[in-house]
Design brief:
binds flavin mononucleotide, globular, six-stranded parallel beta sheet, Rossmann fold, alpha/beta, 186 residues
Length: 186
C-alpha cells in the first residue's frame, strides 16, 4: 500500500507540530515503509501548482493524506487551491472522472485549541469532525474512502513528551492497512 502525505504548512520553518509529524512520516519511509512526503508550500510557494505532476502523484497512491494545521476552523489556503486545481472535472469527478475511485483519503489536522473546546457542549460548539465535513463531502464526490482523521488537538500547549508520542502514533497510523472509514453522520 502506497501512502502519500501532502503536507500543507505556510511556515514549516516555524512549525513545531507539523514539522515533527512530517519527520515521523519521513523516518517511517527511511525505515522501509511505502510512504512519501511532499511539502506543498515548498513545492509551490507562488501557488502555481503543477497540476499534471500532482495528478500523477495521486494516481500512484493508494492512501492520500492531507496534513495541515487547523487555520480558522478550516485549512491553510494552499489546500483549497490544491483542491480547486488538481481535482479536475472529468478526472476526479463527473461521468468520466474516476481516477481516484476506491483510494483512501484521510486528514491529519492539528488544532491549536484543546480537545474540550471541540465539543457540542464546549466553547466552540463543533467537533473537529463536524468542521471537516466539507472534505468528507469532497471525498464522496471523488469516490474515495474517507478515513477517520488523525487529530492532534491542543498543539499550543502540547508537551514535548506528548508530541513524541503523537509522532510515533502518526507513523503507526500512516502504515496501518486497516484504518476505519468515517461514517456519514458519525
Ligand atoms: C492563521 C491561524 C489560524 C488559526 N486558526 C485556528 C483555529 O481555527 N482553531 C485552532 O484550534 N487553532 C488555530 N490556530 C492554531 C494552529 O492550529 C496551531 O498554531 C498549529 O496547529 C500548530 O502547529 P505547528 O506547530 O505545526 O505550526 C491558528 C493559527 C494560525 C496561525
Amino acid at each position: 500500500m502506497t501512502t502519500t502525505v501532502l503536507v500543507f504548512h505556510p511556515r514549516m520553518d516555524a512549525s513545531r507540530v507539523n514539522a515533527r509529524l512530517a519527520r515521523a512520516a519521513e523516518d517511517a519511509a527511511a525505515a522501509g515503509a511505502d510512504v512519501q512526503v511532499r511539502r506543498l508550500y515548498e513545492l509551490y510557494p507562488d501557488f502555481r501548482i503543477d497540476v499534471e505532476a500532482e495528478k500523477r502523484v495521486l494516481e500512484a497512491a493508494d492512501r492520500i493524506v492531507l496534513q495541515f494545521p487547523m487555520y480558522w476552523y478550516s485549512c491553510p489556503p494552499l489546500v483549497k487551491q490544491w483542491e480547486d486545481d488538481v481535482l479536475e472535472h472529468g478526472w476526479a469527478y463527473g461521468s468520466t472522472g474516476t481516477a481516484l475511485h476506491g483510494k483512501e483519503l484521510a486528514l491529519a489536522v492539528s488544532p491549536g485549541a484543546p480537545a474540550a473546546n471541540y465539543d457540542h457542549e464546549g466553547s466552540f460548539h463543533y467537533t473537529v469532525t463536524d468542521l471537516l465535513r466539507p472534505f468528507q463531502a469532497t471525498s464522496n464526490l471523488i469516490g474515495t474512502r474517507f478515513l477517520k482523521p488523525f487529530v492532534t488537538t491542543g498543539t499550543l500547549t502540547l508537551s514535548d513528551a506528548d508530541l513524541e508520542a503523537q509522532a510515533a502514533a502518526y507513523a503507526a497510523w500512516l502504515t496501518d492497512a486497516d484504518l476505519e472509514e468515517l461514517g456519514t453522520f458519525e
